[in-house]
Design brief:
The chain is of the alpha/beta class. The chain contains 13 helices and 19 strands. The strands form four sheets. Strands 3, 4, 5, 6, 7, 10, 11, 12, 13, 14 and 15 form an eleven-stranded mixed sheet that branches. Strands 16, 17, 18 and 19 form a four-stranded antiparallel sheet that branches.
């Protein structure tokens, strides 16, 4: 029995056109670009759609702000969908987060669960995710979930040891990952690490509440570290006195949709203007030579697809700037170019279909020319191959993500 015949039989037997598919036509991962290169770069283009992500870290490390930044990006990409913030901690500063991240509060459903056990909250999220117009959901946070058994017990009453929220949370995650995949939504679970002891060398050992399910089933895990303060171009200040903003730092500790070889990243925010994506863009782009510097003061904006310097659409002159501020001013006054440039960069940093890498990672590889030729050769299809692929798709059906 051939692969195609087997796939069709399974789909027919289980009455699910998306159950089995020929592996060669599985679509690549779609990603939610935040347009903050400090986050999108280490994630190879952004958070994967249709997946579970866990943001963990110590208190005040920026998990909530990062989650709100992701919601704002989702709102921009899917304006017809309603995003949900489930504030189990009852502590979200909505005005501050809106100012920092650009959240559209008119399209954000804020859920402030009171007098509800953890199981009820999780069931409610499942009901929400089942609705057609619901998009990204953020649960803040796992440690704040209390089982109904404990919630209904007097403070002084001891009913003995129990599994806590871990068991219902695991069941919840197993159920919702199918919904996320089919709807291309993202669920972000916020978790706070807890100090659990010391090593023999004196290093602190941390664990994450909620059991093992969040880390096992998450496609992306981000561990946030201590935030720093900013003042102009200084972005790693430990003293917040007279600071004009702050920077979040993190590491990608798990990514099932790409490599974790880029380590981690950062997100910079200014108190007056919010997410400073342009500062982060410049820092990353200059470091990895997206923007060329023939000397210490001149900046050239390069088209990464052609390796040629961009030209002004009006004057036809090369986009050559003397100093960072001149380049930033050009971005501010040319929104169409700004969008075009960000789209180009995000496509460039996303891994290819054939390897967990990008053109950027291969730039220092002596075999880059051979790899590019090999890749382009695999992408070329004969008319017969193309028609056969379309036939398979029509017979078996596309995957739901």
């Amino acid at each position: 029995m051939g692969v195609l015949t087997k796939a069709k039989k399974l789909n027919k037997d289980y009455k699910n056109d998306n159950l089995a598919i020929i592996a060669s036509v599985v679509p690549k991962y779609e990603r939610l670009a935040t347009n903050c290169l400090g986050l999108d770069f280490p994630l190879y283009g952004g958070l994967p759609l249709g997946r579970l992500a866990v943001f963990a870290g110590l208190e005040h490390s920026g998990k909530t702000t990062a989650a709100c930044t992701a919601i704002a990006a989702f709102q921009h990409k899917y304006p017809d969908k309603i995003c949900v913030y489930v504030d189990v901690e009852h502590s979200l500063d909505i005005e501050f987060q809106s100012n920092m991240t650009g959240l559209d509060l008119t399209k954000l459903l804020y859920v402030n669960p009171e007098n509800m056990g953890g199981e009820q909250i999780l069931d409610y999220i499942l009901e929400l995710q089942d609705e057609d117009d619901i998009g990204m959901i953020v649960l803040d946070s796992i440690p704040a979930l209390v089982t109904s058994r404990d919630y209904d017990t007097d403070v002084g009453e001891d009913k003995g040891m129990s599994a806590g929220i871990a068991k219902p949370l695991a069941k919840f995650i197993k159920k919702i990952i199918d919904q996320l995949s089919s709807k291309k939504n993202i669920l972000i679970l916020i978790n706070q690490v807890r100090e659990s002891g010391k090593t023999f060398t004196g290093a602190t050992i941390y664990n994450e509440p909620g059991g093992h399910a969040p880390k096992y089933y998450a496609s992306v895990k981000i561990r946030f570290g201590t935030r720093t303060f900013t003042k102009g171009d200084k972005v790693d200040l430990t003293d917040g006195e007279d600071a004009d903003g702050f920077r979040l730092k993190f590491k990608i500790t798990k990514n099932k949709t790409a490599s974790i070889q880029r380590g981690g990243g950062f997100m910079t925010y200014r108190y007056d203007t919010g997410l400073d994506w342009k500062h982060d863009l410049l820092e990353i782009a200059i470091k990895y030579e997206f923007i060329k510097r023939p000397n210490n003061q001149t900046y050239l904006l390069v088209n990464l697809n052609t390796d040629e310097t961009y030209k002004d659409s009006e004057t036809g002159e090369e986009l050559k700037f003397r100093g960072k501020q001149a380049m930033l001013d050009y971005f501010d006054s040319h929104i169409d170019f700004q969008n075009e440039y960000l789209d180009m960069v995000n496509k460039y940093i996303t891994h290819t279909d054939n390897q967990y890498a990008s053109l950027l990672d291969a730039r220092d590889n002596a075999e880059i020319d051979a790899q590019e030729k090999s890749t382009s050769g695999r992408n070329e299809q004969t008319e017969t191959e193309f028609l056969r692929e379309q036939e398979i798709k029509s017979e078996v059906g596309d995957l739901p993500y």
